[in-house]
Design brief:
Blueprint lengths: L2 E6 L8 H12 L3 E6 L5 H8 L3 E5 L5 H14 L3 E5 L1 H5 L4 H4 L3 E3 L4 H13 L9 E3 L2 E2 L24 H4 L3 E4 L2 E2 L9 H8 L8 E2 L2 H14 L4 E4 L10 H14 L4 E5 L6 H10 L1 E9 L3 H6 L7 H13 L3 E8 L8 H12 L3 E6 L7 H8 L26 H19 L4 H7 L6 H19 L6 H20 E4 L4 E4 L2
Parallel strand pairs: 1-2, 1-3, 3-4, 4-5, 8-11, 11-12, 12-13, 13-14, 14-15
Antiparallel strand pairs: 5-6, 6-7, 9-10, 16-17
Helix pairs in contact: 1-6, 9-10, 10-11, 14-16, 16-17, 16-18
The chain binds cobalamin and iron/sulfur cluster.
Cobalamin (B12) binds next to helix 1, strand 3, strand 4, helix 4 and helix 6.
Length: 492
């Protein structure tokens, strides 16, 4: 039996579905797994006490540098095999030798991590394990897991050792893997290409398995609301699965939930079935308010009307639409970001998020930015969260970048209070600090969540959860982590 310690920087109220799936798979093969987070645990002591054979990290591009540095400090004190997986390791295999990690894992990790645990336990050389990158050599990928039902149920026990996470009655699930689309700004375009010939990228658990897992989780932990974080939960042409899901989920689970959809997939039929199942809110990407940019750069040749219709349809069926829009896209005019905010306001979402676009590695839009000479490909400079640093693109002036940062918070306020939206846009350049916007963004999020994902709890617990949610948001925008001490400092 090998011991694997997963280290997270900070826990989220979104369960880390990849990590808890890996922990379950390892345990099902007789290994021991623990999950700790730097923001809450002395990870140096945890590593000493647990004495892991493998220390495992899951990283997006942006959070990777923190883990590199933490791993170096840990490796200076203890002996273990270190491995990083997740989007960064997947799309940056060439980073492995300099990262200080003993291995990277590309793509799906279940098979590779189990094999690694066996090798480490047996003292064998892991250099040939498929999906792993060891000593700069990237081994071939194994085929995608065809039958998601064959995976064990995710193991949340270690993650929920944190009372504030366990007591928050919202649970996250992902019931499919892959996406049928390949938008040029999204990691799926690269992922689909990488896995070409290695199985169908879009896979889905059976309805019965989804229901069994949700019911198991709700029996163990207080659960009032479900988050389905699948990239696209319902496609316009897959109503058969949705039809079965709607009937069975309502009858056997009956908990309200939220999910993600593309505007293009929203029909009266999909919205009706979601409503029938008990869906409360649907998250949809608007991405950009300029139809030309949507068609030319985002490969979404869809008119404004179709997007606005999707929001109307969702509302007509009693669901709350939630939007996300990208700011700082390349190729736009000076006013594109403001137009995107205005367009989002017109869609009347129950809550709107605005993200600063980051050209992720290998994505077609990232490559376009590089070819245009507006991005030098310095992915190492990405921050862990989109809200915390300005656009890395050179085509924007410092003043414009500052405005985009302000818009990323104030746009949310504008969409929540449409009557004030023009006033907010007009006053934006006079707002001296980002912090006021952050506070209002947070307040709007709390208010909107009462409609989007309503849960009930005693007042004292609600206040504690509010404090935790505030800490998480503050961390997303302002934390400057110090991996040596494990502490998270803040700069406002
Ligand atoms: C839910 C979600 C979130 C949640 C948190 C999730 C969490 N607690 O883990 C929230 C909302 C907080 C979030 C935040 C952000 N997210 Co996010 N998120 C997702 C989403 C939709 C699902 C993640 C998931 O659970 N996937 C399902 C599991 C099964 O897959 P997985 O995690 O990748 O794990 C598998 C493999 O990668 C691998 N693996 C993963 N970790 C490890 C570790 C080891 C040791 C090994 C061996 C293998 C391995 O094995 C796993 C099982 O096969 C993904 C998109 C996606 N479909 O994955 C985006 C995604 C990961 N997010 C992304 C981004 C950009 C962000 C933000 C920067 C956005 C922002 N607004 O600031 C932040 C950054 C957070 C951070 N610092 O890490 C990008 C990352 C792009 C990149 N190249 O790095 C993604 C891919 C979305 C996209 N379309 O591009 N996110
Ligand atoms: S639909 Fe969403 S998840 Fe799928 S490729 Fe496009 S942006 Fe990515």
């Amino acid at each position: 039996m090998a011991k694997i310690l997963f280290i997270l920087r900070t826990p989220e109220l979104y369960d880390p579905v990849g990590v808890i799936s890996l922990a379950a798979t390892l345990k099902s093969k007789g290994h021991e797994a623990d999950i700790v987070s730097v923001s809450e645990t002395d990870v140096f002591r945890a590593a000493g006490d647990f004495s892991p054979d493998i220390v495992a990290y899951s990283a997006t591009t942006g959070s990777h540098r923190y883990y590199y540095s933490l791993n170096r400090s840990l490796a200076a004190r203890y002996r273990f095999f270190s491995v990083m997986g997740g989007p960064h390791a997947t799309f940056f295999p060439q980073d492995q030798p300099a990262s200080g990690m003993d291995a990277f894992c590309r793509g799906e990790g279940e098979g590779a991590l189990v094999e690694l645990a066996e090798h480490v336990q047996a003292g064998a050389d892991p250099g040939g394990i498929r999906n792993l990158v060891v000593a700069g050599k990237a081994n071939p990928l194994r085929p995608l897991i065809e039958d998601l039902d064959s995976l064990p149920f995710s193991d949340r026990s270690e993650y929920y050792e944190r009372a504030w996470v366990r007591d928050h009655p919202v649970r996250s699930f992902i019931v499919s893997r892959g996406c049928a689309y390949a938008c040029p700004y999204c990691f799926n375009s690269k992922w689909n290409e990488m896995y070409r010939g290695l199985g169908a990228v879009l896979r889905r658990q059976s309805v019965d398995r989804v229901i069994d897992e949700v019911n198991l989780v709700r029996r163990r932990y207080p659960t009032q609301f479900i988050r389905f974080n699948d990239d696209v939960f319902a496609y316009g042409n897959t109503t058969r699965w949705l039809d079965e899901f709607a009937g069975k989920y309502r009858a056997r689970v009956g908990l309200p939930f939220e999910c993600y959809m593309r505007c293009e997939d929203v029909t009266h039929e999909t919205a009706r079935l979601l409503r029938k199942a008990g869906c409360r809110s649907v998250r949809m990407g608007i991405e950009c308010g300029d139809a030309g940019i949507r068609a030319r750069l985002l490969a979404r040749p869809v008119g404004d009307d179709r997007i606005l219709d999707a929001f109307v349809t969702v509302r007509q069926h009693g669901l709350v639409p939630v939007s996300s829009t990208m700011l700082a896209l390349p190729g736009g005019a000076e006013s594109t970001d403001e137009e995107s905010v205005r367009f989002t306001v017109r869609a009347r979402p129950g809550f709107a998020d605005f993200y600063i676009y980051h050209p992720y590695p290998g994505t077609p839009l990232g490559e376009y930015a590089r070819e245009q000479g507006i991005f030098e490909g310095d992915f190492q400079s990405f921050s862990a969260y989109f809200g915390s640093t300005p656009s890395p693109l050179k085509c924007f002036s410092p003043g414009r970048k500052r405005r985009q940062m302000l818009l990323s918070a104030w746009g949310t306020v504008a969409a929540y209070a449409p009557a004030w939206s023009e006033f907010i846009l007009a006053c934006l350049s006079r707002i001296p600090s980002q912090f006021l916007g952050f506070l209002l963004y947070f307040a709007v999020k709390v208010l909107a969540n009462r409609r989007i994902s309503p849960v009930r709890m005693p007042v004292w617990r609600a206040l504690r959860q509010l404090a935790n949610a505030f800490r998480l948001e503050r961390d997303r925008r302002y934390a400057r982590a110090n991996p040596r001490s494990g502490s998270l400092g803040f700069r406002f």
